[in-house]
Amino acid sequence: MLITVYGANGYQGKLTLAESSRHDVEVRLVGRDRTRLESAAAEVGIPDADLRVAGLDDRAALVAALAGSDVVINCAGPFTTSGAVMVDAAIAAGAHYVDTAGEQLYVKGVFDSFDGDAERAGVTVVPAVNDGCLPGDLLAHLIAERTGPLAEITVSHFITGAAGLSRGSLRSALATMDTMRSGGLIYDDGAWRSGIPARRDRITLPGGESVAMAALPTCEVVTIPRHVQVDHVESLLEATLKASLETPITPELIAGLPPGPNEHDRAAQQFTYLLDAVDHRGQQTRGVIRGRDTYGTTAVAAVEAARRLAAGDTAAGVRTPAQAFDPADFLETLSGHDLSWTIEAIPTVK
Ligand SMILES: NC(=O)c1ccc[n+]([C@@H]2O[C@H](COP(=O)([O-])OP(=O)(O)OC[C@H]3O[C@@H](n4cnc5c(N)ncnc54)[C@H](OP(=O)(O)O)[C@@H]3O)[C@@H](O)[C@H]2O)c1
Hints:
Blueprint lengths: L1 E5 L4 H10 L5 E6 L2 H10 L6 E4 L5 H8 L4 E4 L4 H15 L2 E4 L4 H18 L2 E3 L6 H15 L2 E11 L6 H9 L1 H6 L2 E4 L2 E4 L7 E3 L5 E6 L4 H4 L6 E9 H7 L5 H5 L7 H6 L1 E10 L4 E9 L1 H18 L5 E2 L2 H4 L2 H9 L4 E7 L4
Parallel strand pairs: 1-2, 1-4, 2-3, 4-5, 5-6, 6-15, 7-12
Antiparallel strand pairs: 7-13, 8-9, 8-12, 10-11, 11-12, 13-14, 14-16
Helix pairs in contact: 1-13, 3-4, 4-5, 6-15
This protein binds NADP nicotinamide-adenine-dinucleotide phosphate.
NADP nicotinamide-adenine-dinucleotide phosphate binds next to helix 1, helix 4, helix 7 and helix 13.
């Protein structure tokens, strides 16, 4: 099985390479700069790995560099500006495709533009395989299996610890600042809509604390309605964290920062993602995902997704995580990496 990592020398790319090398797979590094790729391969302990140089501006070279791969994992953000080129090249090379994007409109664009091409090529494309969208999409499916059709799902993200964002995440936030500030798309009444306010501005944490929230343009809003019968999906982030994401930061300032959180801060970082579902009778159900180390979890999820695509018989086309993989089984795999999940009906107050 050959897994190719594009953007292999980036922060997420190296974590993904390291995770790939823990499995019995061949790994190929592709990117636009040979020296940076060579040092990435050396850094993760695979100095003899296959390595190809191809930028995004030369489609033929890119397709040739991906040829022979079972799966391509694309870690080269911002995806808003470059992701579509990679999806197209992977399909042309006949390789399944996974990426670590968290950019909502890009991910919607992949579903809108590439489903037919991927189906005709017989390959599966799964964007947004990251620490948030993958478990959120899988858990939403498991919730709906228990509840039946839903009136709404609210996805809330909480992250604690000193680990900040990687330079790549900051560049992605900068590239999508208008969407970030507007709150992005909300799924409402059968369509994805922009410019409508979120219904909720506070969420109560499992311990009982009520927290101010603001709309966050996550990919879960794009993926969940594709397999869950639901009228409304919105997503939220703690308001203080959202305000810090909206603080203007220049490319020059980003370039001067460390590539991403160090190992110690990654290990101490904890995330909680809540999925609050309400059915048509008003019955509430809460799904809770808990984990640590967003970037490490993303690497594990991306490599697991790639291995499943290469080994399995997933239907061709653009798919959400829950459409491509068995939700409970995939989450079970992540439990080996400190991710846990629960689903609980919330008693109705009379
Ligand atoms: N939950 C989430 O939403 C989530 C979680 C994890 C990661 N992510 C996303 O993953 C992405 C990667 O983050 P990171 O921290 O690894 O970024 P990074 O360290 O800046 O690395 C980016 C990589 O992409 C390559 N690249 C960027 N633009 C390119 C272009 N135009 N042509 C060719 N190569 C290009 C870079 O190559 P050079 O070194 O040659 O510039 C580098 O290898 C970000 O978009 C981040 O938001 C999202």
